[in-house]
Structures are given as C-alpha cells and as structure tokens.
C-alpha cells in the first residue's frame, strides 16, 4: 500500500473511523399487489455488483403481509440475505409503518449502502428514512459505483438542468442512500439454485398508535400507456413543427404496432400527453427499437432512452446531438423520410418488396 493510499484510508471514517461498523448493501424490495416491483429486481442486480466490489453481503428488505414466499425470488435475483417484516399491519404501504421498520433495521444491522426504486413508494420511503436517520439521499441516480478504498458510494445523476452529470458522495453519514428509476439498471438472470438466509424481525406497532389509515387505493385510470414495457417506440419532437406534423409519428407507430413517445417540447406544445414524455422528467425506456424523429437529443431526453437496444434518429441537422447516441442516423427532412418509411414498412409487413429510403 502506498503512503498516499494509507493516508487516504486513515482519514476515511468508513475504513477505520466510526462508520467502519456499517457494512453491507441493502435493497428495498417493493411489493405491489403481491408481486415484487421490477425495479427492485433491477436494483438487486446492481446491488450485487456493488456488494461484490466491497466484499460484503447483499440484502433485500421485504415488508408486508404474506410476503415470506417472495424471499426466494429475492435470493434468485442476487441477494444473500433477506430482512423480513411480516404482519397484517404492513399489508398496505404507509410511510409511518414502513419507515419505522427500515429505520429500526438500519439502526440494528447498520448497512453502508441502501438502494430504493424511484417509484412513488420508494421515493416517499427513502426520503422519510433519510430524514429520520439524518443521512444523505441521492434521488433519481442513473449510474452507481463504489470506491473500494474509501467505501464511498458514487451516485451519479444529471444536474443543473441536465447540463452536467454530478457524482454525489455521502462521506460522513450512513447508510449512503440512493433512489434509481425503473429500467435504468439491469436485473441478473434469476438463478433458481441460489438461496439465502431470512432474518425475520418483529415490530410492536399498534393500529391505534398510527396517524394514518389506508381506506382505499384508487388507481390512476388515465395512464394507459405502458411506455416502459414497449418493444418499439416511435418518438417525435419539436422538429415536427405542429400537431398535424406530429401525426406522422402516430402513423409510423401504427404501421409498426409501436408505442408513441415524445420529447418534452412536443408535450409542452400540447401535441401529446405528458404520459408519453421520455426523459429526465418523463419516463425511462429501453425498447428494442427507438425512433427519434425531429428530436435534437438534449441530455434530459437522452437519459430517458439512451439504453434502448437500437436507436434510429431522423433529423435534418447532421450535427444534432441525437446522432451521437443513435445506432442508425438518417439526415434529412422528416416530412419526406417518414412517409417513405411508413410506405416501406407497410409493404414489408405485408410481405412485399422493401423500397430503399435514401
Ligand atoms: C430540468 C429539465 C428537465 C427536462 N426534462 C426533459 C425530458 O424529460 N424530456 C425531454 O425530451 N426534454 C426535457 N427537457 C428539455 C430538453 O432540454 C430539450 O429542450 C428538449 O428535449 C428539446 O426537445 P426537442 O428535441 O423536441 O426540440 P428541439 O431541441 O427544438 O429539437 C428539434 C430538432 O428537430 C430537428 N428538425 C427541425 N425540423 C426538422 C425536420 N423537418 N425534419 C427533421 N428534423 C427536424 C432540429 O434539427 C432539432 O434537432 C428538460 C429540460 C430541463 C431544463
């Protein structure tokens, strides 16, 4: 070990200071209607990598009523341990009860890293826990890594309007916490042979002592678009000029059986609903094919679609940043190219000869 490394380690409270008792990577396992949220499985995949680097256990934190059987899945997706709090009082999510469980578990078992899905529940729980434990929380992280020497979690996310990527450290408090949006990280292939240890804890929480009661859960029926699950997305931006121009996006999507996406500018122009917005303040998507039509490729848009398997960009500006992210680029006028694509795909899908599109 060099002298410099020794000095760095000596100075680090996580290595030989008061934070050295905190060890292990934890993931909050969100359960909706008896099913583990996909983002929790994705975080187990990412958590596994961090835990391996730090040479510690990966644990899932499972709270609910009749959820014990889900621990098997938590192990199959990478965890070594599963902290379980099972009681009818936990049947429905409440900040009050779930926060108490997580805070008590953290105080007792002292994890060094704790990851949550950036879902409405995950965000609510993580912020309540961070406040109670007086630790830091990085929201909407897009990249996670860890410095094995200092044991610091490096949580990166777009900052200052998306113009830079900021890497945020939590040097003096534990656990180091982050929320991550669905579809940003990758779940491991489940291994049915994997097993782990359940650590069950009981909590003395009485209904009469609680301030909140869940009377009914009303689903938002307006949101019918499942952007996150789409295999093909045809997304349009400001380059389509107006609502009539944006019709081309709908027509190409219809031809391909695809879902329609949009940039924020197209949404703000009122051409399509916000539920179709892709990006930092919209949804994160990873389809097999993503068409970006008349979209410049601002960082706030890119963070929501750059992990798509194949990106095809159509833009009349050869220097548009979207071409940096695209696997295939067509430089030209969308009003000429898209109708020809519609025609070509229409023919191809009906078994006829495909025409060349420039
Ligand atoms: C805090 C914050 C959060 C944000 N969140 C999001 C988000 O979630 N999602 C998002 O998308 N944006 C978001 N933005 C906005 C983002 O910065 C951009 O302003 C936006 O993505 C631009 O949309 P656009 O690409 O449709 O429009 P523009 O940037 O105006 O690009 C239009 C493109 O169309 C091309 N074009 C013009 N005419 C044609 C034609 N005839 N044929 C082909 N191409 C043509 C142009 O060359 C240009 O590249 C956010 C911004 C901030 C500050």
Per-chain topology:
Layout: H1 3-11, H2 13-16, E1 25-29, E2 31-32, E3 35-36, H3 38-54, E4 58-64, H4 71-76, E5 81-86, H5 95-109, E6 113-117, H6 120-133, E7 137-141, E8 143-147, E9 152-159, E10 164-168, E11 176-180, E12 197-200, E13 232-236, H7 243-256, E14 259-262, H8 264-268, E15 289-293, H9 299-305, E16 310-315, H10 322-325, E17 328-331, H11 334-349
Parallel strand pairs: 1-4, 1-6, 4-5, 5-12, 6-11, 7-11, 13-14, 13-15, 15-16, 16-17
Antiparallel strand pairs: 2-3, 8-9, 9-10
Bound molecules: flavin-adenine dinucleotide.
What is the structure about, briefly put?
With 358 residues, the chain is an alpha/beta fold. The protein has helices at 3-11, 13-16, 38-54, 71-76, 95-109, 120-133, 243-256, 264-268, 299-305, 322-325, 334-349, and strands spanning 25-29, 31-32, 35-36, 58-64, 81-86, 113-117, 137-141, 143-147, 152-159, 164-168, 176-180, 197-200, 232-236, 259-262, 289-293, 310-315, 328-331.
Please characterize this protein's 3D structure.
The chain has 2 domains: 18-209, Rossmann fold, CATH 3.40.50.620; 227-349, TPP-binding domain (Rossmann fold, 3-Layer(aba) Sandwich), CATH 3.40.50.1220. The longest helix is centred in the N-terminal third of the chain and has 17 residues, at 38-54. Strand 15, helix 9 and strand 16 (310-315) form a beta-alpha-beta unit. The chain contains 11 helices and 17 strands. It is 31% helix and 23% strand. The strands form 4 sheets. A 7-stranded parallel sheet has the order 7-11-6-1-4-5-12, sandwiched between helices. The protein has a 5-stranded parallel sheet with strand order 14-13-15-16-17. Strands 8-9-10 form a 3-stranded antiparallel sheet. The structure holds flavin-adenine dinucleotide (FAD). The site of flavin-adenine dinucleotide has 30 residues, from helix 8, helix 9, strand 16 and helix 11.
């Amino acid at each position: 070990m060099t002298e410099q490394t020794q000095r760095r380690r000596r100075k680090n409270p996580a290595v030989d200071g008061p934070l050295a008792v905190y060890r292990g990577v934890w993931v909050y396992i969100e359960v909706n209607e008896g099913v583990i949220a996909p983002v929790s499985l994705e975080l187990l995949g990412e958590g596994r990598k961090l835990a391996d680097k730090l040479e510690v256990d990966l644990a899932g934190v499972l709270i609910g009523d009749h959820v014990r059987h889900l621990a098997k899945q938590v192990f199959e997706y990478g965890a070594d341990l599963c902290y379980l709090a099972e009681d009818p009082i936990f049947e429905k999510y409440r900040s009050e009860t779930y926060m108490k469980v997580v805070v008590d578990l953290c105080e007792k078992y002292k994890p060094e890293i704790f990851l949550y899905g950036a879902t409405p529940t995950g965000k609510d729980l993580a912020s309540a826990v961070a406040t109670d434990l007086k630790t830091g929380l990085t929201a909407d992280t897009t990249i996670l890594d860890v410095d094995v020497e200092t044991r610091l979690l490096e949580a990166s996310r777009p900052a200052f309007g998306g113009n830079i990527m900021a890497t945020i450290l939590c040097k003096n408090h534990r656990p180091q916490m982050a929320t991550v949006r669905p579809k940003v990280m990758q779940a491991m292939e489940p291994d049915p042979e994997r097993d782990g240890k359940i650590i069950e804890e009981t909590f003395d929480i009485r209904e009469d002592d609680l301030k909140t009661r869940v009377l009914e859960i009303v689903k938002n029926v307006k949101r019918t678009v499942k952007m996150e699950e789409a295999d093909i997305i045809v997304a349009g931006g400001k380059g389509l000029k107006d609502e009539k121009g944006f019709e081309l996006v709908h027509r190409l999507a219809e031809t391909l059986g695809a879902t329609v996406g949009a940039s924020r500018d197209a949404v703000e122009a009122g051409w399509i609903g916000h539920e179709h917005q892709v990006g930092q303040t919209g949804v994160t998507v990873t389809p097999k094919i993503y068409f970006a039509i008349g979209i410049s490729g601002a960082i706030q848009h890119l963070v929501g679609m750059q992990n798509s398997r194949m990106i095809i960009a159509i833009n009349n500006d050869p220097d548009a940043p979207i071409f940096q992210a695209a696997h295939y680029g067509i430089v030209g006028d969308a009003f000429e190219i898209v109708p020809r694509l519609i025609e070509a795909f229409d023919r191809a899908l009906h078994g006829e000869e495909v025409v060349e599109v420039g």
